[in-house]
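Rotation project, supervised by the postdoc (A.L.). Task for the rotation student: set up a whole-complex structure prediction and record inputs and outputs verbatim in this book. Inputs entered:
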Amino acid sequence: MTSAWTPRSAWAGFARAGRHGRPQGEPGVRLTLRDGVGLATVIAADGQEDALGRILADRFGWSLPGSGAATLVGERGLVWSAPGQWLAVAEARAGLQGLAEALRGVAAVTDQSDARAIVRVSGPRARGLLSKGVAVDLHPRAFAAGQAAVTSIAHIGAQIWQRDEAPTYDLAVARSFAGSFWSWLSHAAAEFGYEVDREAEH
Amino acid sequence: MRIRCPYCGERDNGEFSYLGDAAPRRPDGLEAQASAMHDYVYLRDNPAGEHRELWYHGAGCRSWLVVTRDTRTHTISDVSPARDVARSRRPGEAA
Ligand SMILES: [Zn+2]
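Outputs recorded:
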């Protein structure tokens, strides 16, 4: 049976592929729309954090990151969200299959794949761009690859994690805020010139 | 003013919500005198100096915190997870 429902990018109607903002020179910022990412919140049951860590290591090869950290290998792993709470990330929803069953009794697992809009921010001016909206010190001395923060950008709750020293950041906001968030992001990036990698899927 | 969240590090106070005095403890509702309940619900000290108060890190880790702040200078001398403070008050349970 075919379905009348088709997946729609969280950024559809807001992000446009191509070069925007300052037209001269190389783009300072590259924005990669990340659709179809698998996401789930993992919340440890009281006193079960050690057991949770062991199961995740044995079954998925993941290590539980501490406060303000992310442990990602490629596109998979965990981002710290709050005490006893993490965001599990995989390249696609199927990548988190079996997680809830494996963690039964030690953690609550809730699929968030359709609940967040994620954009990857890179390019030579990525840090300068985010510094305009993030009230967290992003200087490499204070915030480096493997670090994560839950904060707000333009009054919109955002989770941010740094992937590498380039630097490359992933930003997640609630999907219903994607339009408002894109409005801030695109205006803030305009002065550097920015490129959106591809059209958002409608 | 910035608050150093024990989990998130130093953050702008706009990320937090203020609840108030951390000292009042709810009397047992069925046993308490009306006067004790009235005191718990309505009466607060207003010290010029050190004050222990509850803040919620709503834009960050969503934790309740007990912040010790000097009301004259806004100098913060301690921030602890409210959960640890509550546990340390319970007999037989360490923070
Ligand atoms: Zn916090």
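Student's summary: Residues B 5, 7-8, 57, 60-61, 63 surround zinc ion (CB under 6 Å).
Supervisor addendum: The mean pLDDT of chain A is 96.
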